[in-house]
Amino acid sequence: MSAIPPTASSKIQFSKSQAIAMLTPSIGQGGNNQLSIQLNVKDTPSYVLSNVGGFKDVASKINVVSYDKLQRTVGVIYVDEENDDIPVKDCGTAVDSAKQICVRPGKNKFLDTQISLRDSLGIDEVTRDAVIMAGRNKVCNSLAISKNIATPEIHCSLSTLKDSLNKIYQGTNVIFTDISKYPSKHLAINYDYDRDGLLDAVGTTEIRFLKNSVADSIKLAGDQFDYYLILVKNAKYIRGLAWLGRGGLFESNPRLFRFVLINVQPHLDRSIRTFTNTVGHELGHGCFDLQHPFDEKVILNKGYKKGSDPHNFMDYQDGHKSRKYQWNQIHENDKISRPGGRDY
After folding, report:
1. Chain mean position to CA 158
2. Does this model's pTM top 0.70?
3. 280 in a domain, yes or no?
């Protein structure tokens, strides 16, 4: 667009589904004349983008970039680690036989209890379940684990989380219209295969079983959201992670899920902004295929290190800003798969 003569129209019209994401004069900053843009949107208070650039000449070119509005929803799923072992004999109880059953599994048919070195693992001759027996010293030494490991509630409201995510993604024209707890109660999933009370979260059987169990629960309850945020109490070595894949224990489940998992416990002692930025960061990975800037640029620029883009929300710095190349990636990579296997 050239400099506007007094007799010319100075209006550019966009459809309601679009937003101006970036305005840049082709010659950048500088010059005596400062360029400002007045935006007037129907049913929205007008505002000014001041000093977006400068120009020296009579004519100046302005690049206007717009993106279609992406309205997205997030279901928040709390997952408790299920423990329902049944203590047949209290820990420390002396018994008459080394084969006396001390602990048996509950309805999930999985022994959640850490087996004491002085007890032994056996098979119940009636139910054929794995059980814990007293062992040679004829004393029950294993403490039955019969209570779920509950994930605590996050320390900010879901409305605050939505506002924060919309602030992070405002330049991209992605709008999160609904972030709701789903289902209303915590899911109880028995994922702790090694019985250490933690989720082994990277490339393990535990994380695969958790993902598939959540996917099946969504399928049964009704798939209502575009993305899903899974909250657990304790995961090893991580604050958050994300993945994309066909989830479900049943092969008939074709849904291509975009999941984000957040380890709640380490965030409880940190600021709300750190928590919401972690969620925004992992959504970038799992929902829009964004990478860390330092990973993307390492080949082209070996000197680029973590933290070199300190305000970028993908650079681990609790930032709220993003780059144009990331906006492009978001709109190129945003796909949601529904039953039937089609992406759109």
Report:
1. 14
2. yes
3. yes
The secondary structure of 98-165 as a DSSP string is TT-EEEE--TT----SPPPTTSEEEE-TTT--EEEE-TTTTB-------S-BPPPPPSS-HHHHHHHH
Gap between the Cα atoms of 267 and 282, Å rounded: 14
Minimal CA–CA distance to 242: which of 216, 218, 262? 262
- Among candidate residues 155, 174, 185, 270, the one with its CA nearest the CA of residue 227: 174
Is 212 in the same domain as 333?
Answer: yes
Q: Is the dihedral of CA 110, 260, 185, 254 positive or negative?
A: negative
Cα separation, 165 vs 161, in Å, equals 6
Domain of 222, in residue numbers: 71-79+150-343
Question: Could you read off the pLDDT of 77-131 as tens digits, one per residue?
Answer: 999 999 999 999 999 999 999 999 999 999 999 999 999 999 999 999 999 999 9
Q: Are residues 131 and 228 in the same domain?
A: no
Overall number of domains in the chain: 3
Give the residue carrying structure tokens 């667009």.
1
Same domain, 139 and 176: no
Helix, strand, coil percent content, the chain, rounded in steps of 5: 20, 30, 50
